[in-house]
Write a structure and sequence with these properties.
alpha/beta, six-stranded mixed β-sheet, globular, 29% helix, 12 strands
Amino acid sequence: MRMAIAQLAATTDKTANLQVASDLVARAAADGAALVVLPEYTMSWEPRAEASRIREAAEPLDGPFVASLAGAARANAVTVLAGMTEATADRPANTVVALAPDGTLAGVYRKVHLYDAFGDRESDRLAAAAPEPLVLPVGDLRVGVMTCYDLRFPEMARFLVDAGADVLAVPSTWMAGPGKAAHWEVLARARAIENTSYVLASGQCGRHRTGRSLAVDPSGDVLAELGEEPGVAVVDVSADKVAAVRERNPSLVNRRFAVVPR
């Protein structure tokens, strides 16, 4: 089976973002991908936007962004993961939607760890969600979903693996800065190694953002990496590979601690 990481440089122009995202989905599908992981904030993004602008841009799950991306998933018969700002009764949520190959909404993940770090405070603008795993089947693999800053918390990845994930999808807008690109790669590879799982980390590119989306195998080897421009990379993934690595390196079996959300 094949899965894809795709990156774009989203702006506040939702129509343009959707067009680029749909084109990336089509490219990945043409190369045989069954799953396409698009970045966090694929719908709309601007650096450190004010809370009022985020509320104005937010959409419900039955709004035009999800409907249009569902059309792309259906037209290409692939599962699509993509980030959006979801309108809710309280503050908006940083949400990833999972769209099935028939265009139906297969699941929703709302970001648990908001980006209150490196001088930013995402929690001033958005509502954090309680931990709830989104794990969905894609072929004979199970894909767990988390978002960007969640990658810095090993408990989040293990929480998904405990729920059955053997692929970790990480839609992101990883901000640029000293050492940040190194953190991005090291953390993605660490989550793969410690969980003996694939990691598909898709980040936005463009000004202020790191890009460099990467796919990592269950041994921690990088299968594909993008640069700092929009693009897509498709990789081969295998349940047999996961099983073989977990047999050789049974760290999940040997562990002595459980993850309990607080």
